[in-house]
């Protein structure tokens, strides 16, 4: 559980230092091999400071991920007019955070990303699911589809060592949404 005191500058600095320390440690070894002491020592903070802000190691990553999703949401307002415009901004944003995503995915914590992504598409990007005038019953399925599509494309991109450029990933996503891979259209 994360301490929700977001206005205290000292708490914000501590959370940021703990997050940076954990990500740096994750570049060297898996999360299961990292202790709270490793994190606090690397951050130059006490165990008490850790427990004042977080309950467990995973909370640090969840906090960092929440911060990134907040940044993405701010960057995308106002929302692009088209779905492909939104996908371009979405994948460009995450392209700038490949190292963090790799750390998250490689440590089997992709569920944290997937959960935040569903929230994003159900709350911030819901208007895209509603553009085709679906019924009220269809909207949650469309939102889940968009969240799942974008998550799986990011995950596959990461598993492919980020080899493709962002523009290709956006093209693939847009073509998938248009059904071009399945109906024979180019």
Describe the main β-sheet briefly.
none
Strand content: under 5%
Structural class of the helices, strands and pairings?
Answer: mainly alpha
Quantity of strands, as a count: 0
Terminal Cα span: 48 Å
Number of helices: 10
Key structural traits:
186 residues; mainly alpha; 10 helices; 69% helix
Structure write-up:
The chain is mainly α and 186 residues long. The chain has 10 helices and no strands.
Topology of helices and strands:
Elements: H1 9-26, H2 36-43, H3 47-53, H4 57-75, H5 83-95, H6 98-106, H7 110-124, H8 126-130, H9 139-159, H10 166-178
Short structural summary:
Helices cover 69% and strands 0% of the residues. It is mostly helical and 186 residues long. The longest helix has 21 residues, at 139-159.
């Amino acid at each position: 559980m994360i301490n929700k005191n977001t206005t205290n500058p000292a708490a914000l600095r501590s959370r940021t230092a703990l997050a940076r320390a954990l990500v740096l440690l994750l570049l060297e070894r898996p999360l299961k091999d990292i202790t709270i002491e490793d994190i606090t020592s690397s951050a130059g903070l006490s165990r008490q400071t850790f427990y004042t802000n977080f309950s467990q190691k995973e909370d640090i990553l969840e906090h960092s991920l929440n911060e990134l999703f907040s940044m993405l949401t701010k960057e995308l307002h106002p929302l692009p007019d088209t779905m492909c415009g939104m996908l371009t901004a979405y994948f460009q944003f995450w392209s700038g955070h490949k190292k963090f995503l790799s750390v998250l995915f490689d440590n089997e914590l992709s569920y944290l990303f997937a959960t935040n992504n569903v929230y994003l598409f159900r709350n911030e990007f819901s208007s895209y699911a509603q553009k085709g005038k679906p019924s009220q019953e269809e909207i949650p399925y469309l939102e889940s589809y968009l969240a799942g599509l974008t998550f799986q494309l990011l995950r596959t991109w990461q598993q492919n060592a980020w080899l493709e450029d962002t523009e290709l990933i956006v093209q693939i996503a847009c073509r998938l949404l248009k059904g071009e891979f399945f109906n024979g259209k180019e």
